[in-house]
Design goal:
CATH topology of chain B: MetI-like fold
Number of strands of chain B: 0
Shape of chain B: flat
Strand content of chain A: under 5%
CATH superfamily of the largest domain in chain A: MetI-like
Order of helices and strands of chain B: HHHHHHHHHHHH
CATH topology of the largest domain in chain A: MetI-like fold
Radius of gyration of chain B: 22 Å
Largest sheet of chain B: none
Radius of gyration of chain A: 24 Å
Order of helices and strands of chain A: HHHHHHHHHHHHHHH
Distance between the termini of chain A: 15 Å
Structural class of chain A: mainly alpha
Number of strands of chain A: 0
Largest sheet of chain A: none
Oligomer: heterodimer
Shape of chain A: globular
Helix content of chain A: over 70%
Largest interface: A-B, 53 and 50 residues
CATH architecture of the largest domain in chain A: Orthogonal Bundle
Chain lengths: ~325, ~280
Amino acid sequence: MAILEYIVGRILQMVPVLFGVSLVAFLCIHLVPGDPVQIMMHGRATPEVLATVRAELGLDQPLPEQYLRFIGGAIVGDLGKSIIQKAPVNEIIGERLGPSLFLLVYSAVLAVLFALPLAVVAALRAERLIDHSIRILGVVGFAMPPFWIGLLLMVLFGLVLNWFPISGYGDSFVEHLWHLFLPSVTIAVFLAPLLVQSLRSAMLDVMTADYIEVARAKGLSRRRIVVKHVLRNAAIPVVTVLAVNIGWLLGGAVIVEYVFAFPGLGSLLVRAVGFRDYPVIQGLTLVFAVIVMIINLLADLSYMAIDRRVLRR
Amino acid sequence: MTAAVRAELARWPASLKVGSASFALIVLTGLFAPWLTAYDPYTQDLANFLQPPSWQHPFGTDQVGRDVFTRVLYGIRIDLQIGFLTTYVPMSYGLLLGALAGYLGGWFDTVLMRLLDVAVAFPFLVLIIVIIAILGPGVHTIYIAVFILAWTMYARLARSEMLVERGKDYVLAARTLGYPTSRVIFRHAMPNVINSSIVFSMADFVLNILLVSGLSFLGLGVEAPLPEWGAMIAEGRDFIFDAWWIATLPGLAIVLTGVSLSLIGDGLAHRLGQRQRSFL
């Protein structure tokens, strides 16, 4: 019962945040200085066309009514219509949601794969040369602009060596893995240093705990202690770092998607801003926020699965 | 005086020394850029376009014959100025609001926390881009957008630090002595609250330089002729196959600056006795 209570409580907490989020997404078109419709049409439309578009977007209605229509539509998945692409926003976003989520998961997995061995070595050899070298490597990785790494990887592995495709998404799962390798590595380079540092310090904390002493006294091998005890208990910080940085991860993905001309939500956002396609921008704002909230919810639920003590707080 | 300085320097970890020295060098290079190069960052020389690196042009020339080295040097001024302001302006009022919320509690704290909940529900870059979509691209919009949003991180940090400090004996003692609340907050608690934000600000500085160069790369930030590093990388992107130096070398400038700042942050974390590393 406690579990169910916790989950329901956690979801109820999201309601006021969702209200705030929807307000931000709704207001973005109304905060445009001047006439958003005029700007959207780039000043090239007749007054009749402007009036039609305004009516189509519902901008001629009173503000509270517009908000209710916006939120009512959003709940049933109707996010309005793109003026530029002449298609429903939910369809435009829906097409690109899958590829973006794939990219997100793929880069998180690669980042963990890069970070895990480095963190284990750094923690086992703490304050030695190899530990310091790994830290410097992380500092450099953290300071590299994702669009720059992406560009360099694209030139080196895509154009010069011709190992990986430099754009697109592919049609099957294996093709996705192949097409998304370079963009995912780019994001992972940025994310991995954060993971290495938190995993390293978590492992150092766990390694001084009493039950590790007990395991050592029992004569368990070093390898077994690291794998079975230390890594398992250091898993929570990894989940936290991934969840806390999900905003940065999604932001980085926006730029990386643009570099690789990848058909995802980020490149859609950049394009929509270029065209001032406000219905698409509003829809994306909402979708991005919901993704962040769902991932944070999943992170909280996974703490519960890893460590039941969370429930008592 | 010199003895005090020497004693302080002796307590600096190596990362702080190396980071400060290289960052100081970068700042000086930016300040003295006109004396360090014979070229102008804007003057085009169409007879010498896309020249590879040489003694005349150590970083080569771009598609309209401008000296890339000169543009990278002048870029220091632009990127550091934007990076500095976008870090420390929001930090000032973020710290203030967070510390007040942590100390006072009540409705002020509740309202602030709800605002922070909404702010962190969005990816930071997405909100910045949305504000750019509202107000139009350019440096001024970046300033406005970051000033609206970035204080939330400092407010969160300062609030949680203040919650800890508030319960400590020295604060209780100051309150018992009847000091006014403002004095307890600013003279007693604040010096202890501020450290974690100072350490975080170094990582934030790096992220803000990445943010500005990233937005300029997307064509939403600093406008074209200005020698901003991200904008230069965007320009060089079209020529990357024939002239790798245009996009690659400004990127190295970003990395070098970022590493210097991260090292300072790492060193400060040690020096100020903060447990966490600079970029966490």
